[in-house]
Specification:
The protein has about 290 residues and is α/β, with parallel strands linked by helices. The protein has helices at about 10-20, 60-75, 105-115, 145-155, 170-180, 225-235, 255-260, 285-290, and strands at about 5, 25-35, 40-45, 50-55, 85, 120-125, 140-145, 160-165, 185, 190, 200, 215-220, 240-250, 265-270, 280. It folds into two domains: about 5-145 and about 280-290, Rossmann fold; about 145-270, Rossmann fold, CATH 3.40.50.2020. The model has no long low-confidence stretch (mean pLDDT about 95). Bound molecules: ribose-5-phosphate (R5P). The site of ribose-5-phosphate has 14 residues, from strand 12 and helix 6. Ribose-5-phosphate (R5P) binds next to strand 12 and helix 6.
Length: about 290
């Protein structure tokens, strides 16, 4: 059955790589933004009858990229009743539960919209928490870039490396990375004030990190605050170089500069969010999943 890959504007390079792996037709979308902020999206050509795969990451500006995703899915549905939607980075994934009374679980709203637009199946990469997957109303699969990130790090020369998770939520991710890399791991205790967003590391000093190169593993970097605080905490204890391996590097508000200033030596991320650090390609793991 012919397969067509439609690329959202946020994921052109990744979609091209995926189309190549699937031996599929590639269709890109043209985006015009009107002065009032509305998006006008046009696909370059009609997909052939068969399966359509839409690749559209919803990184910032999240709301407009989400509209683009929904629009592409609804257009794809005109040509196929089997629309597979790949959302490499899922915006709003951190809003997967009501942390404070009255908060809206926006991820659930989005999951409803994706179904209504016509997605028959969704594939996401390292969604913030598995809890988020429960909100989807069509079959959903979460694939992980962690093995690819670990393989990338295997090519680097690190001194007595130790893998570190900046918080409990990321413990299993760090454990997986450490297992593939072939080393041990530790988990820090992070506190984020739910009202102010202020981050603190509240772990007692660690034994055994003096002079060791560390790899902080996280699902995402937004403002970089979590990594800055973790790096400051680790550097105080005279560790070696601090590397960061994360799937989604949003790098908001000079995050990269702030992390480097705090002592981060190198940041490596996946191409779910293309940018200066996105050295790891996830088209292979997505192709396997579909
Ligand atoms: C939080 O639990 C996530 O895993 C990330 O650590 C966090 O969202 C990163 O945000 P920021 O870079 O703004 O600290």
């Amino acid at each position: 059955m012919p397969v067509t890959v439609i690329a959202g504007n946020t994921s052109v390079d990744l979609a091209k790589k995926l189309a190549k792996r699937l031996n599929a037709d590639f269709v890109c979308a043209d985006l015009r933004v009107f002065p009032d902020g509305e998006s006008k999206i046009t696909i370059a050509k009609k997909p052939k009858k068969g399966r359509v795969v839409v690749v559209s990451s919803t990184y910032p500006p999240v709301d407009s990229n989400l509209i683009q995703t929904l629009s592409l899915v609804s257009k794809a549905r005109e040509f196929s009743d089997r629309v597979i939607l790949i959302v490499p980075y899922v915006g709003y994934a951190r809003q997967d539960r009501e942390f404070l009374p009255g908060e809206i679980v926006t991820l659930s709203v989005i999951a409803n919209l994706l179904k209504a637009a016509g997605a028959s199946r969704v594939v996401v990469v390292d969604i913030h928490s598995k809890i988020g997957l429960r909100h989807f109303k069509v079959p959903v699969e979460n694939v992980s870039a962690v093995p690819e990130l670990a393989k990338y790090f295997k090519k680097l020369v690190l001194r007595d490396p130790l893998v570190v998770s900046p918080d409990f939520g990321g413990a299993s991710r760090a454990e997986k990375f450490a297992k593939i890399y072939g080393t041990d791991f530790v988990v820090l205790k992070k506190h984020r004030d739910r009202k102010t967003g202020r981050v603190q590391i509240i772990t007692p000093d660690l034994d055994d990190i003096k002079g060791r190169d560390l790899v902080l593993v996280d699902d995402m970097i937004s403002t970089g605050s979590s990594i800055v605080k973790a790096t400051e905490f680790l550097k105080k204890q005279k560790c070696g170089r601090v590397f960061v391996a994360c799937t989604h590097a949003l790098l908001i508000n000079n995050a990269e500069k702030k992390m480097k200033k705090a002592g981060v030596f190198k940041i490596v991320s996946a191409n779910t969010v293309p940018g200066s650090t996105s050295a790891v390609d996830v088209s292979g793991i997505i192709a396997k999943a579909i």
